[in-house]
Write a structure and sequence with these properties.
mainly alpha; two-stranded antiparallel ribbon; 6 helices; 2 strands
Length: 169
């Protein structure tokens, strides 16, 4: 079997793209005599704006994470005091427990210590809320975040009002 080729077609000349010259970059001489390019870099204002955006983003993220962690869950609510009482009871139980019970109690103790740490950190939500109020309106307008979106992720209407974000905007 022989492969047949289609009719020969004349080749079209390929047009080469026209190169446009980029603006010349500044060069500086080094001790060795070779020149190196200098970076055009960002302006100080641009760097400051990026830094400000990172700070605002961090405040927003921290506040929303705390809201998420404190979102009401089903069942009986645990308080710092109830966690502390349970930790004390576990310490007593550990002294008399068999090896498998020690394993289970140790894990429960570790879980409760972590939960206690989170609850204590979240107890100071007022400071986070005031930081959020300072940056939420600017951050939201720059990123196109609406009142409804803020509400849907759990930010209260009172906090949004303090931040200057209204349902009308």
């Amino acid at each position: 079997m022989t492969a047949t080729k289609g009719p020969a077609t004349p080749r079209k000349s390929a047009k080469k793209p026209v190169k446009t010259s980029a603006p010349a970059k500044k060069t500086t001489a080094t001790k060795s005599g070779m020149s190196t390019r200098t970076k055009s870099g960002m302006s100080k204002a641009h760097k400051a704006a990026l830094a400000q955006g990172r700070v605002e983003g961090r405040v927003i993220r921290t506040y929303l994470d705390v809201l998420e962690a404190n979102r009401p869950k089903r069942g009986r609510k645990r308080t710092i005091e109830s966690i502390t009482r349970r930790l004390a009871a576990i310490r007593k139980e550990l002294q008399l427990a068999d090896t498998v019970s020690k394993l289970r109690l140790t894990q429960e103790r570790m879980d409760l210590e972590l939960e206690l740490k989170v609850k204590k950190a979240n107890a100071d939500i007022g400071k986070l809320e005031s930081q959020f109020v300072k940056v939420a309106r600017i951050y939201g307008s720059r990123n196109g975040i609406t009142y409804t979106a803020w509400r849907e992720v759990g930010v209260s209407a009172q906090v949004l009002k303090r931040a200057g974000i209204s349902p009308d905007a």
